Amino acid sequence: MILPAVSELLSRVTRHSSVVEVFAQLRESSAAEAALTGLTDPAKTLLAAHAVSALRRPVIFLTANNQRADALLEPLRYFCRALAGPSIQVAMLPAFDVLPWQGVSPHPEILESRAATLWRMSHGTVNLLVVPLAAALFRLRDAAYYSGLGRTLEPDADVAFDELLGHLIAVGYERVETADMPGQFAARGGIVDIFPPETVRPVRVELLGDTVESLREYDPATQRSVAPVVRTTLLPLTEFPRRREILERVYARGAPDSSETELREAGALPGWEFEAARLESGGNDLFQLPAGAGRPLVVLDESDALDEAAADFFLRLSRDGEDSTRAVDTAELFLSQEEWSEALAGQQRLRLERLSLRHAAANGEELSTQPTTRFHGNVPPFMAEVRARLAAGEQVMASAGSIGELERLTDLCREYELPYLLGELEDTATGVRLAEDSTAGSVSALVLTRAPLSEGVVFRDCQLVLYGTADLFEVLPASDRPKRRPKTAGFFSDFSELKAGDYVVHVDHGIGQFEGLRNLESEGARGEFMLLRYAEDARLYVPLERLDLVQNYRAMEGEAPALDRLGGTAWAARKARVRKSLQDMADQLLRLYAARKASGGVAFSPDTAWQREFEDGFEFDETPDQTTAISDIKRDMERALPMDRLLCGDVGYGKTEVAMRAAFKAVADSKQAAVLAPTTVLVFQHYETFRHRFAAFPMRIEMLSRFRSPREQKQILLDLEAGKVDIVIGTHRLLSRDVRFHDLGLLIVDEEQRFGVAHKERLKELKKDVDALALSATPIPRTLHMSLAGLRDMSVIETPPKDRLAIQTVVAPFQESLIQRAVQEELARKGQVFFIHNRVESIYSIAELVQKLAP
């Protein structure tokens, strides 16, 4: 709940004479356009939110691209909530990430986001719509069409079982045995389990004939009902329904010989969505879609940038469409330049500009704003500046990116005896009640609020300053908190990479060669089998349900193993020798780990208030696996036995955040923490990440690598031994004999398998009586076996973070036109291109080719 103190502050801007004059123009139906200039980004989002509050009609906020829309979305949501209350809905309509002639379907998350937004727009529940220009140019259907993509269910409602299943398939839901992931449904008897994309739990729909008898939430893990539901809305996952009549026409055009199965699957022809859009083109523009509250106001974010983005997009449509081998009539999918200009000219517009250009000033007003100062973690100058501004009669607000950062700011205000007010009493996402012991009774104090404003703004004419979350601590805000994180399947499975000719190992028959999958009939039932070839051209068929018996063969690159004989004795003898070696190694490891258990370790204290502040400063929501791993590690650290835990997780899944929380716990208990990484680059990356996360706390972090001069290294080692360094991050340099710790409590090793034998011997000495945490994206089999056998504890992070989009892979023959188009597409969306070549000898000629194709 945002308190009136925040609204009172912001009203200084909305009551300014320039703003009042512009909005008086906009209230006149005859006024075509107004402008406000001199605005930084936070000022633009504040004024766009004021438009929603003041005009009480839909607002469409046009940006140049998806990235710009993403950056402004959360500040717009915050200011709308502050000015007009929590009922105001802000949504984004993203542009497609591919173009029609590329033969690739848009990313599922983009399809899902667009479909949900279009459905809400058709129902008139979106007050402010943020739209990249490319999305605004796409031809849309009418509101009635998008309204039919969703379905609301409630008890006693009439719905036919088959019709419900057909609707779910049409709007993108996947039918499975048990629905435990968003976007899935399962049906059995008269019960349909559905997991809508924006709900916390799936819903169980019980039908009696053609009537909904009951709705209940259920736990996807246990499949047990949790609580009754009054009403549920099944949002669509695509704006292109998979209706048979449309698919038949699509496949007749793109794949005339398509089978009935392919038609049912509806995804076998990549890019079919654009063909469906062409066949069902409605011809409406974006401004005709908002339902209910009348004529929308169109807010233009930097009109020159929008004009440039439009020109670039129309150029790509004409140039790339002509060069493509896939003929697509883009006029049926996108507005022409003339149609776009005419549609925009017919709307009432508000231009928001950073600079006071001549054409903007002709029919606009200026509101002078400027960015705030960045203090880079230096608290005294920040407090001094705030005190001076308050003394001069200015009103000041400081934004925090999380509850922990907000509480940290209140502590600093008390420490520096600066009067403050809390602008928010409760975190709406978690329901956590914030402290109410503000030390001032008026808005003349520093107002502290949780807001997703990374950069601040000074309204010079309004005597108002808003500090962003990065101004003091350089911590970015939680810009888009996810409601859920889908689970990945099979963390240790690598069969998706298996191809014909690869070598595999069958647990009973030894090394064979994979020759592909075969569909066979066995005992009257058909099924898929893995075909393996062995010595003397013997064949073995392994049913897919017994894939647990087969592993990928790992060996030195280029080494081709000898195939085993089916029924031979060589494989059994080899397994016996390996078993004996493993027993010897196990004896040695058991002695080592028994010594660790007997030596006794440090029992760290339970979490402190600082620990909670540090964890609340995390910019994102923890994934379920992260939460479990954090709990496991804290439990280990609070026991008197030395921790030895392996943390497995893919790159980018959040292992470092878990490690930083463990390091913070150690340092908060007056112990030192060491982080060991195999490469200089990785050490530097960890160093920057740790500095960024620990910026708000008085803990010293140092780095030992070749990036430090011998003189700097010597001083760091002296301070490390004296206890002046809390966390040291380094390469194998940390394992040198001259490195001595004052009181080491935690050792974190990243990618331990990449260290040599001598380094591991030194590691064993260091780990003898301290807590040890190993991080790995690709643990070697021995490390995994030790964890699975109980010699080491193991935590696994399988859940991908939000915005970790699935990789889209296209395999195609080498074509210069394909390379050129791919590079141009990526550069057009302001991205980066990495071109991987497999021969050093010819890399310069390839570089010349790429330079010619994309100068």
Strand-pairing-aware structural class:
alpha/beta
Regions with little confidence, pLDDT below 50 for 5+ residues: 260-268, 427-437, 476-494
Number of strands: 33
Q: What general outline do the C-alpha atoms trace?
A: globular
The portion of residues assigned to helices is 25-40%
Strand order in space, largest sheet: 3-4-2-13-14-1-15
**SS strand fraction:** 15-25%
Descriptive notes:
The protein is an alpha/beta fold and 855 residues long. The protein is built from 27 helices and 33 strands. The protein has a seven-stranded parallel beta sheet with strand order 3-4-2-13-14-1-15, with helices on both faces. A hairpin with a 4-residue loop joins strand 20 (457-459) and strand 21. It is globular. The protein starts with a helix and ends with a helix. The model is unreliable at 260-268, 427-437 and 476-494 (pLDDT under 50).
Topology overview:
Elements: H1 4-14, H2 17-27, E1 33-37, H3 41-55, E2 59-63, H4 66-84, E3 90-92, H5 108-122, E4 128-132, H6 133-136, H7 143-147, E5 151-153, H8 161-170, E6 174-175, E7 184-188, E8 191-194, E9 203-208, E10 211-218, E11 225-228, E12 232-234, H9 244-254, H10 260-265, H11 272-279, E13 297-301, H12 303-323, H13 337-345, E14 348-352, H14 358-361, E15 364-366, E16 369-370, H15 379-391, E17 395-400, H16 403-415, E18 420-422, E19 446-450, E20 457-459, E21 464-467, H17 469-472, E22 503-506, E23 510-522, E24 525-534, E25 538-543, E26 550-552, H18 570-599, H19 609-616, H20 624-637, E27 644-649, H21 655-668, E28 672-676, H22 680-693, E29 701-704, H23 710-722, E30 727-730, E31 744-750, H24 757-766, E32 771-776, H25 781-788, E33 793-797, H26 816-828, H27 843-853
Parallel strand pairs: 1-14, 1-15, 2-4, 2-13, 3-4, 6-7, 13-14, 17-19, 17-21, 18-19, 27-32, 27-33, 28-30, 28-31, 29-30, 31-32
Antiparallel strand pairs: 5-12, 7-8, 8-9, 9-10, 10-11, 16-20, 20-21, 22-23, 22-26, 23-24, 24-25
